[in-house]
Every structure is written in structure tokens, then in C-alpha cells.
Write a structure and sequence with these properties.
Belongs to the peptidase S49 family. This is ClpP/crotonase-like domain containing protein. Pfam families: Peptidase_S49. It comes from Trema orientale (Charcoal tree). By secondary structure, the protein is mainly alpha-helical. The chain has a domain of about 55 residues. The protein is built from eight helices and two strands, in the order E-E-H-H-H-H-H-H-H-H. A two-stranded antiparallel sheet has the order 1-2. Strand 1 and strand 2 form a beta hairpin. The longest helix has 25 residues. It is flat.
């Protein structure tokens, strides 16, 4: 499988051929995201995962097609969703309600490092390897920011940016 990547950083874009292991990594990541989405969709639609897979098949369905397959409750936008929510909550349709956007959770360490890595030119291979280890860990995970930096301390490829990252994480 040949893969082309865009490497974006500090105002310039360059294309490069993806390495086979990068293609495999991307493929595994896409599969994991699909399975998570499929499983959540099955749960929310009160379907088994097998039933959801049979209906959805990894496709994106247009509104009416999705409705006919039981993948959505109704077709419409935000106002339709608010009307349905009011109905289910026994709130009169003419009553004004306030919509509150829930804040996003704090970014995880891999998300922070990914963001930094995509904007810095020549990010150390050390941080890439650690990020990969953190991202694909299948075990129990907890946010222990100091542990990562202890692993980096004294490493020959250490970068002064790590100190800034550590300070940022400790301020969250």
C-alpha cells in the first residue's frame, strides 16, 4: 500500500512517501476509530454490534437512507433536535430554552504531544516513540505526566521543549 503524507509545520507543506509502518499505523488507527464509533452507535440504537455492522457496513448514509435503516430518529437540524428534546422532556414547544455547550475535556497527553509535534519542525524521534507507546497502550491508563518526563531525563536526544511541555501540563 502506497501512502502519501502531508507534513505541515510552521507555514510550509511538503509531501513525502509514507513508510509501510506508517500506513499500517494509520490503518490500525482508522479501524480502531471505526469500531469505537460502530459500538457506540449500536449501543445508542439498542442494536447488537453484529446488527449494526450488517446495517452500517462502514458506510456514511444520507438522511432518508439512514432513517429507513433505523440509524437516526428523525431528519432535521438543530431546531428539530431541540423540538424533539422538548417533547421528550415535556417542555411546551413555545417555551424558550437556553442551549448550553458543554466544555471539552482537558486534552490527553498524547493529544497535547500530537499537537505540538505537528507544529514543530524536526520533533525528536524520542518523543514520537513515546507518543506511539502512549497512544496504543491497551492497558489501564492514568494521567501521570511526570513519568513521561522522567523517562526523557538525561536522554541524548532530549529537547528543551520538553521542559515547556512539562510546565504546561503541570498548570492544567
Amino acid at each position: 500500500m502506497s501512502m502519501r503524507l502531508l507534513d505541515v509545520g510552521l507555514g510550509r507543506i511538503r509531501r513525502k512517501d509514507g513508510k509501510p509502518d506508517e500506513a499500517e499505523l494509520f490503518s490500525r488507527s482508522a479501524q480502531r476509530a471505526y469500531h469505537q464509533f460502530r459500538d457506540k452507535a449500536a449501543f445508542s440504537r439498542s442494536m447488537s454490534v453484529d446488527e449494526m455492522e450488517e446495517v452500517a457496513q462502514g458506510r456514511v448514509w444520507a438522511g432518508k437512507d439512514a432513517a429507513s435503516r433505523g440509524l437516526v430518529d428523525a431528519i432535521g437540524g438543530l431546531s428539530r433536535a431541540v423540538a424533539i428534546a422538548k417533547q421528550k422532556a415535556n417542555i411546551p414547544q413555545d417555551r424558550k430554552v437556553t442551549l448550553v455547550e458543554l466544555s471539552r475535556p482537558s486534552p490527553t497527553l498524547p493529544e497535547i504531544l500530537s499537537g505540538i509535534g505537528s507544529t514543530l519542525v524536526g520533533v525528536d524521534t524520542t518523543i514520537k516513540a513515546l507518543l506511539q507507546d502512549l497512544t496504543f497502550s491497551e492497558g489501564v491508563q492514568a494521567r501521570m505526566d511526570g513519568i513521561l518526563f522522567e523517562r526523557l531525563e538525561g536522554h541524548s536526544n532530549a529537547n528543551p521543549v520538553f521542559g515547556l511541555i512539562k510546565d504546561y501540563l503541570s498548570s492544567l
